[in-house]
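pls ignore typos typing on phone
adenosine-5'-diphosphate + seq
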Amino acid sequence: MGTLDEIISYSGSLKLIYLKQNLEQLLDEAKKRDQSYQEFLRTILCYEMESKEARAKEKRLKSASFPTLKTIEEFDLSFQKSISKRQLNELCELTWVDQMYNLILLGPPGVGKSHLAIALGYKAIEAGYNVSFITMDLLMHTLKTAEISKKSKGKLNRILASSLVIIDELGYLPITREEANLFFSLISTLHEQASIIITSNKGFEDWTELLGDPALTTAVLDRITYRCEVITMQGKSYRLEHRQSLFDKVEND
Ligand code: ADP
Ligand code: MG
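k done
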């Protein structure tokens, strides 16, 4: 085996993927730039580290299961006046995730609850946190089938291993008594180990009807709101305001 082949083989065993795939290019570069031994080694390690971080971020992003990717930069604060620039900056700093604070985003459809939740989730992924996004509907299904379905069990384990769990759309679909109990037990576990973002089109006053039992609702709210920021998002639906009509173009022509 030639020296190059040996290096490639060692890189593979050590999982130095960047080095394995770019060895010749790295060597050419070193020659071209007349790099010192130190500089050459530093360059290799630096690229290796960057590519490892990028792969880890990609993996975290994939396992977060966002329905679509939304960013803070795309979030138009002039449209959503319920949040100030300062508040948004503070949320983006993610100290609240370290401190295991929760965030509840309330408001009617289309005001940007899911957008903001996903965008903050993405920020957290960039900062190195494990994040899980799940709709309330899918969460209920996952909890109910975790014992009998490998897929659900995997999903639940990912949720339990996340520093930030986003539960989207609480209140769109009615839930059963059994589901409410499962939800409560998940929240009890999560509130000691992770931050939770919940989005809902229902105010707290309607959560009892939703969860079906005042005592259970109090217990859930007690845990979630113990350390929590509640943001009530108001205003018009961004979707309706920015509705794209199929015929606009024709009419304008
Ligand atoms: P909600 O979850 O409150 O029903 P969404 O977050 O799904 O609303 O928002 C509906 C659509 O409008 C999404 O495509 C979202 O990206 C967009 N949107 C909502 N609010 C804003 C905003 N303030 N700036 C930019 N896009 C927004
Ligand atoms: Mg939504």
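The chain has 13 helices and five strands. The chain has a mean pLDDT of 94. more later
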